[in-house]
């Protein structure tokens, strides 16, 4: 391989001599995205992986374009044209939010400066800003001055981190062997709890789920029974994971009752009580709500809390944090490396966040939240979240009154789980596949994107409302589209529905 012009790569290095090129490239990129956003009339193009894959496969990575504009033109084709746009009011699927502009500014700044928050000598002020935001979040939770925490890549990592600390505490106190450790969560808890248990080397039976009530909240009586059963079986309950905002239903487990049970239970050792982790990946937006903060009452009694700013604080991915009531427990994640954080630094009080994190090199994601708070303030963020919660309540009323649909439960947050119910007759038994089909057909059209889930073994559709720009008219329009797709499926197949083999063509 030959390099025709030695030194040709130097203009791409970001430094004092290339700031003009940086400015132009950033402006061109910003303009390109702005143009896309301005013109996007649907949340998705409906492209299939089969159609897009060859475009990406055809790019010759050995032959660079030597030009930002040309690369952006190409990017239009391989990415921007067919990306899924969460800012669009008819994106109603997952827990992805539209993002606020101060956070986008933060993203641009943090990647250009490229601080790494593992050690003070790779970030300086970034470390202190992150610490202030942890302190601020802990204050909103209602933790005392001993609280601490760290930013993470997402709720999955935050949950893993919290459960690692709980496991180490259980081990330190009770010396419990991993196979005897149990984690109790509700049947609506997030799958990352199970994943964390696996990664932590707990046994396959480590995660025990207890039943929920009709509103999909953990039943305290069921938790009490399970705590008791574990104690009698000689098992050590290492943590109870309560969810403040379940992914499907937005339900919030009864935190005060659960905290009482955890406190009262012997769990680890004799007097310690059981570690309570609150997974508020979704519900954390309530921390800044002026109208609904009370829904999180009891969260201040947790030992650890997961928050996902990239879900209900309108922050770009990634931005999450794990917080603990007693900062001293974070030592369980600390390791000393001679090259990174020698003891001398600790003795001199140099703040090295790597001592608290599972990661080493780590993005300065906190800057996005910092600029958001400094430009907009917490009330404004809470207002945006309150608006989507209001909208979800209106959407619930709309669907509940619509005979074409049945709805599962009213969410205290912003989801809606429902299904199209074909009219009485032979089409009824096609309901499952009709809903599955409607979701796929809608996504393929690109007109809107909705999610799906299973309730009691049946297929349901799900809206997750996180965009204050989504109107009730948008919701009504998407419902009509879904009903249209589902009924078309039924009309095509109902005449054949007596033949059992055709009822599951889409499963
Ligand atoms: C989304 C979610 C998670 C996982 O968070 P990520 O940021 O996607 O890793 C965990 N718990 C709950 C309740 C969630 O909704």
UniProtKB/TrEMBL annotation:
Cofactor(s) the protein requires to work: pyridoxal 5'-phosphate
SUPFAM superfamilies recorded: PLP-dependent transferases
Record's signal peptide: none
Keywords: Decarboxylase, Lyase, Pyridoxal phosphate
Keyword Lyase listed: yes
InterPro entries recorded: Aromatic_deC, PyrdxlP-dep_de-COase, PyrdxlP-dep_Trfase, PyrdxlP-dep_Trfase_major, PyrdxlP-dep_Trfase_small
Protein family: Belongs to the group II decarboxylase family.
Name of the protein described by the UniProt record: Pyridoxal-dependent decarboxylase
């Amino acid at each position: 391989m030959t390099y025709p012009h030695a030194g040709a790569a130097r203009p791409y290095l970001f430094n004092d001599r290339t700031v003009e090129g940086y400015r132009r490239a950033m402006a061109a990129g910003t303009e390109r995205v702005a143009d896309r956003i301005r013109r996007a009339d649907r949340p998705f193009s409906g492209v299939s992986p089969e159609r897009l894959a060859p475009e990406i496969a055809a790019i010759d990575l050995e032959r660079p374009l030597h030009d930002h504009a040309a690369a952006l033109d190409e990017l239009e084709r391989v990415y921007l044209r067919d990306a899924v746009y969460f800012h669009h009011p008819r994106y109603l699927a997952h827990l992805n939010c539209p993002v606020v502009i101060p956070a986008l500014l933060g993203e641009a700044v943090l990647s250009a400066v490229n601080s790494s928050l593992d050690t003070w000598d790779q970030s300086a002020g970034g470390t202190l800003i992150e610490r202030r935001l942890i302190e601020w979040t802990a204050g909103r939770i209602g933790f005392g001055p001993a609280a601490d925490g760290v930013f993470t890549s997402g709720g999955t990592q935050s949950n893993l981190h919290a459960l690692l600390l709980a496991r180490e505490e259980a081990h330190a106190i009770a010396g419990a062997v991993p196979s005897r450790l149990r984690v109790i969560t509700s049947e609506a808890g997030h799958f990352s709890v199970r994943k964390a248990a696996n990664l932590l080397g707990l046994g396959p039976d480590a995660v025990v789920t207890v039943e929920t009530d009709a509103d999909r909240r953990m039943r305290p009586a069921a938790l009490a029974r399970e705590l008791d059963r574990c104690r009698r079986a000689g098992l050590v309950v290492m943590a109870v994971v309560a969810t403040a905002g379940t992914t499907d239903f937005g339900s919030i487990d009864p935190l005060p009752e659960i905290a009482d049970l955890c406190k009262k239970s012997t769990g680890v050792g004799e007097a310690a009580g059981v570690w309570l982790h609150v997974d508020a990946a979704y519900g954390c937006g309530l921390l800044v709500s002026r109208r609904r903060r009370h829904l999180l009452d009891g969260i201040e009694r947790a030992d650890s809390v997961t928050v996902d700013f990239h879900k209900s604080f309108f922050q770009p991915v990634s931005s999450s944090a794990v917080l603990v009531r007693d900062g001293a427990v974070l030592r369980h994640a600390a390791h000393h490396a001679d090259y990174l954080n020698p003891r001398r630094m600790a003795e001199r009080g140099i703040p090295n966040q790597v001592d608290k994190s599972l990661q080493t090199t780590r993005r300065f994601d906190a800057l996005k939240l910092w600029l958001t708070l400094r430009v907009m303030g917490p009330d404004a963020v809470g207002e945006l979240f309150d608006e989507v919660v209001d909208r979800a309540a209106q959407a619930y009323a709309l669907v509940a009154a619509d005979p074409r649909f049945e709805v599962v439960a009213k969410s205290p947050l912003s989801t809606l789980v429902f299904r199209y119910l074909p009219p009485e007759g032979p089409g009824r038994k096609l309901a499952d596949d009709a809903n599955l089909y409607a979701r796929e057909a809608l996504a393929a059209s690109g007109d809107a994107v909705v999610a799906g889930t299973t309730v009691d073994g049946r297929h349901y559709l799900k809206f997750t409302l996180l965009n204050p720009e989504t109107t009730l008219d948008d919701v009504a329009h998407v419902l009509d589209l879904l009903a249209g797709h589902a009924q078309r499926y039924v009309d095509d197949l109902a005449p054949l529905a007596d033949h059992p083999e055709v009822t599951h063509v889409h499963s």
